Amino acid sequence: MKNNFVTILDFGSSKITCMAATKVSDKGEFVIKAVGQSAYNGFGDSSWYEPETIESAVNQAISQVENKMKSKIKEIFVGVPGAFSAEVTSEASITFHSKKKIDRDDMSEIIRKADIYKCDSDYTPLGGKAVYYILDGALKMADPNGFIASKLMGLVSFSYMRNYFRDTVAPVLSDRGISKVTYINTCEAQATYIAQATLNESYSIVIDIGHITTNVMLCGGGGLLFERTFALGSGYLASDLCQVLGCDFNFAMAALEKVNLNLEIQAGDAYSLNGRMIDAYQTNEIVKARIGQIASYVIKSFSFCDKEIPANTPIILTGGGLAYLRGGADCLSMFLGKKVKLYDSVNAQTKRNEYTSCYGLISEAIRCEKSKGGLFSFFKSAKGE
């Protein structure tokens, strides 16, 4: 029996999350029905830290969702983390004999013609997605279907998955009887979702700072223009505190919940945690120093980007690391020299920064189901589109 919901699997830097969701409107809104989660030691530099733990962690997260939904999962959409994915862009154009109404076939042809890259044997292509189209060299838009033009140009983003990631995850899912697996570039799904949720129709920079990794993404129009991943996150802030304060890691993580970088700390001020007083000035300075390093890595990341980024491009911070540190966004903003805005949502189900990658994967999974006439295609047919 086919599931009447979509299921996604997200690999964060410290947790694996499985979610089941259903679509509730043709605007892409959805309701999360079940969440399953398991802790693991994550990844870095394109490899798992403890590959032998992946199977049990994946099974645990999926089993939680199956138990809550009282249904076996037969199909799943798996997010490929930035550490295991790559992205490139390419342009293509079509010149018609005369003006014509642009249709979906023309748009698909642009993507086909733009696919000029030969995939390395270590990677598997995940397909292309148009970032934007330009009609007659002047009118730029995300969806030109139905417009009249004599020339159509498009910028297309292509994603690739490291086979190492697939070869680890696929056998686990197969052993569970999940026969249909679709892999999605998590960075692309997350950045596109956040750009649309925050009504940024042009360029936007998304910075996802997690527990031990950070993803830097440039989104433009309807797709990803650039992605970069490096190994730094909130876990490194805690490690710094461990070394200086002489405490264990759990105490350091709890201390980060006390930190407030917006306060004007003076000598002698202290944070109280579990009956212990810790030097507030020293703690804040340690945290600021590491955020400064993260900012320098973000800036360095864009030295690998060949796109021109408008000066007014908004920067959006998300992820489960720095987003919850009081004053963290402002501190990052100070080091970047640019205003940084925290991701937020009016929908209580899609407010949590540690889950924005999941929200992006759900949104993309629903889009995929609709485009291939899957379980949510009735939203399309009901409107007669």
Describe the structure.
The structure is a single chain. The protein is an alpha+beta fold and 385 residues long. Among the domains are: 85-160, Dna Ligase, domain 1 (2-Layer Sandwich); 199-342, Nucleotidyltransferase, domain 5 (2-Layer Sandwich). Helices cover 33% and strands 33% of the residues. The strands form five sheets. Strands 3-2-1-6-11 form a five-stranded mixed sheet, sandwiched between helices. The two termini are 28 Å apart.
Sum up the overall morphology in one term.
globular
Percentage of residues in helical conformation: 25-40%
- CATH topology of the domain at 199-342, what is it called? Nucleotidyltransferase, domain 5
Number of helical regions: 10
| CATH architecture assignment name of the domain at 199-342 | 2-Layer Sandwich
**Poorly predicted spans:** 374-385
Total strands: 18
Report the top-level CATH class of the domain at 199-342.
Answer: Alpha Beta
CATH superfamily of the domain at 199-342: ATPase, nucleotide binding domain
**Cross-sheet strand order for the largest sheet:** 3-2-1-6-11
**Rg calc:** 22 Å
What's the pLDDT, averaged over the residues? 92
Tell me about the biggest sheet? Answer: 5 strands, mixed
Terminus-to-terminus distance: 28 Å
Which structural class best describes the helix and strand composition?
alpha+beta
Topology, pairings included?
Elements (H helix, E strand, L loop, with lengths): L5 E6 L3 E9 L6 E10 L3 E2 L2 E2 L5 H16 L5 E6 L4 E17 L2 H11 L8 E13 L3 E3 L6 E15 H13 L4 E6 H12 L5 E7 L4 E7 L2 E8 L3 H12 L3 H10 L11 E4 L2 E4 H22 L13 E4 L9 H9 L3 E3 L13 H16 L6 H5 L3
Parallel strand pairs: 1-6, 6-11, 12-17, 17-18
Antiparallel strand pairs: 1-2, 2-3, 4-5, 7-10, 8-9, 8-10, 12-13, 13-14, 15-16
Helix pairs in contact: 1-3, 4-9, 5-6, 5-7, 7-8
